[in-house]
Specification:
globular, two-stranded parallel sheet, 3% strand, mainly alpha, two-stranded antiparallel ribbon
Length: 317
């Protein structure tokens, strides 16, 4: 293997990656300062992604990772993805029979059909939307009466908070993910890599083999989605904002200090395409529930719980 080839394949050990991780920390500090100054932040709550101390030292205290808790945690995330994609692709969300369950059923704020200019992009959005809808239905069928209800979901202000913190837009600008296809793809990028790493992180704790097989199948579909989104963004020349989003996700993991802290990659590395984010062994990254929560909550109370203003339903929240 040539030195040049080794530099391409070894994504985690190169000086460029070390530099990029230092850049993540710089971006994280900037995001924290911006969050304090933003009116939507809770006064005196600290910085975005700082991780508020709970009763113990953990920002989010995770209950036992039972199959029930894991699948309800996954269901909350699938609700978010399904509502986002269904509204973007078709202009409507989940049906009423797909949202009830244990806990309070919350509304969805925001969302509208994207005016796609490229028919192929619209087809991708429609396919992914139906996949996510089916994931919700499959998990709900698996859990039966123990399935949690859809929590309150914010598809309105949460994207602006995330985009400002990442530096994708200015501190007073607004980000509407349903404005056009480029905005939609950048917003989708926030979710897809998180879904892959969340399922990977949960896999070792799933006891029931049938549940594990189902989770593995969903992980594979989410990985297909992530690869498609990353490819489209790269082809459209949107690596700069996408990489800022990646850096912000990494900052969220680093703030928690989990075992996979900081493991995220943009759609370019060392100036080359990086469609498949992996470690040096070409294995997909994994995230703990705490890391996932810190991302989707946009730092917790500091981000008004981000995409889930009233937190998730279920034990892991």
């Amino acid at each position: 293997m040539s030195d040049a080839t080794a530099d391409i394949l070894d994504k985690s050990a190169s000086p460029a990656i070390t530099t990029r991780r230092l850049e993540r920390r710089r971006l994280f500090k900037q995001a924290a300062l911006g969050a304090v100054a933003t009116a939507t932040m809770v006064a005196g709550s600290g910085s975005l992604f700082a991780g508020t101390a709970a009763a113990a030292s953990d920002p989010y205290a995770t209950p036992p990772l039972t199959d029930l808790n894991i699948f309800n945690f996954a269901l909350n995330l699938e609700y978010l993805e399904a509502e986002f994609y269904l509204r973007a692709a078709f202009g409507t969300g989940l049906e009423s029979q797909d949202v009830g369950g244990v806990g309070a059923t919350g509304p969805v704020w925001g969302g509208s059909k994207v005016p796609f200019a490229t028919p192929l992009f619209q087809q991708y959005a429609q396919e992914i939307a139906l996949d996510e809808q089916n994931h919700v239905r499959a998990i709900r069928a698996t859990l039966g009466k123990q399935a949690v209800a859809r929590p309150t979901i914010d598809l309105l202000d949460s994207f602006t908070t995330a985009a400002r913190a990442a530096g994708v837009i200015g501190p007073s600008a607004l980000f509407n993910p349903f404005l056009d296809e480029n905005s939609f793809l950048l917003a989708a990028f926030i979710f897809e890599d998180v879904g892959v790493t969340a399922y990977h992180g949960a896999a070792p704790y799933i006891k029931n083999k049938d549940y594990l097989a189902a989770a593995s199948g969903i992980l594979a579909v989410e990985a297909y989605h992530a690869g498609a989104i990353r490819t489209l963004l790269l082809g459209l020349g949107l690596s700069a904002p996408a990489n800022k989003i990646s850096a912000l996700r990494a900052a969220a993991s680093e703030a928690i200090g989990g075992p996979m802290a900081g493991d995220d990659q943009g759609i370019t590395v060392n100036g080359r395409a990086n469609i498949v984010p992996t470690d040096s062994n070409s294995i997909a990254f994994a995230r703990t529930p705490q890391e996932v929560l810190n991302i989707v909550y946009l730092g917790g109370p500091a981000g008004l719980y981000g995409f889930f203003p009233k937190q998730l339903n279920g034990a892991i929240r």
